[in-house]
Amino acid sequence: MNQLSFLDDDPPASSPVDWSPTRSAGIARQEYFVPYAGRAYARARNFDLAATDRTNISCLSPWIRHRLILEQEVVASTLAKHTFAGAEKFLQEVFWRSYFKGWLEQHPAVWMSYRRELRRSLDQLEQSKPLRARYEDAITGRTGIECFDAWARELVELGYLHNHARMWFASIWIFTLRLPWQLGADFFYRHLLDGDPASNTLSWRWVGGLHTKGKTYLARPSNIARFTNNRFDPTGQLATVATALKEPDSGPSISLPSAEHLPIDVPYGLLITEEDCHVESLKLKRPPSGLIALAATNRRSSLPIGEPAQAFARGAVEDGVARAETHFSIEKSEISDLENGDRGWGKELIVFALRTDVKLIATAYAPVGPVAEELAAARTVLAAAGIRLIEVRRPYDDAAWPHATKGFFKLKAQIPKLISVLN
Ligand SMILES: Cc1cc2nc3c(=O)[nH]c(=O)nc-3n(C[C@H](O)[C@H](O)[C@H](O)COP(=O)(O)OP(=O)(O)OC[C@H]3O[C@@H](n4cnc5c(N)ncnc54)[C@H](O)[C@@H]3O)c2cc1C
Prior knowledge:
The protein is mainly alpha-helical.
């Protein structure tokens, strides 16, 4: 048993998480965890027990983020074992991802400003030796704040951190170490198996008081000691105030782009990316003439991407391709070099279209982030060659995203309705 007492619906003895980037590993983890997604989760989810004991949280985020398993599958399997009220907390967490994705989709300027300011901060690192030294200490776990240093190493080694540790880490980064938040977000994004433009960027902004304007998150030593079971106690080492960060207004929100539909009677080639590795559930009306896979993992940052994160994204795409080949009875697809940086996606896709003899390429909708940027650039190149690109959006996103205009609570109020519509 883990060290806490969770009463009758305790998870069984801790077993290491199998982080394999396959749908079957994700489904296995889902089946293991869902029985405890009710009261046990609500009671114990905030404890960061240890990297070797993840019995109190699902650890499903890497699979959900790459859509190896789908949000609605997690929701359905949870409701098959619990009532809505019994698993409400867990279900709400699942919808936080939808909220962040939908919100960023309607505020793309926030992503662009993050990327711009990150470049500026990286330039500053080149120019200022003291800043560079403080940054290096933080990312290599040499600040002298034991918990922070342990989390920095855990992130690099495993590609995963507990949600509470992510909040404490971001808070210490911003308010105690006083480093630019964009550098911290970049460090997470480069190393997390679930590294995601929306959840990551907006969570960092939330901690710094930029998402919910003026409301910050302060990491407190007593809270860290309690929720790490006294593994850590940084008393006297942390900032005691967290004054909200400020930034210029990033401009108004935009409307969600309208959904595109695949024509029934036109042959097409199918592109698989790390944004969605379950294309067989896209409800495409006819099988594609060919498959191609491309990855944009290296575009997460100009700094190197962590090996675990890189391997997870690549494995997820390869697993997606293997299943799609079986599902659509396609013998051979193109995944020769997933990161086709030099040639660019546009040219890569033109060659694919010519070889497959299609004038239309379909792919799952890519939300704001590097894949969407690659697709936007490719769209122009393809159009010049007379090839159309269509991004197919899932009904789940179509239903949830319009509610992600303000704070989470607006979307939260819609969760029961969303679940019944999606059922
Ligand atoms: C600073 C910071 C950075 C983060 N960066 C990322 C990121 O890059 N990618 C990412 O997927 N999550 C990110 N999160 C959100 C959250 O920490 C992870 O989704 C969660 O820890 C994943 O662990 P789990 O699957 O065990 O979650 P559980 O507690 O078991 O929750 C179930 C599912 O709900 C979703 N979820 C839970 N909490 C959140 C949340 N706060 N925001 C969005 N979705 C949530 C995830 O899909 C998760 O798998 C970040 C949080 C913080 C504070």
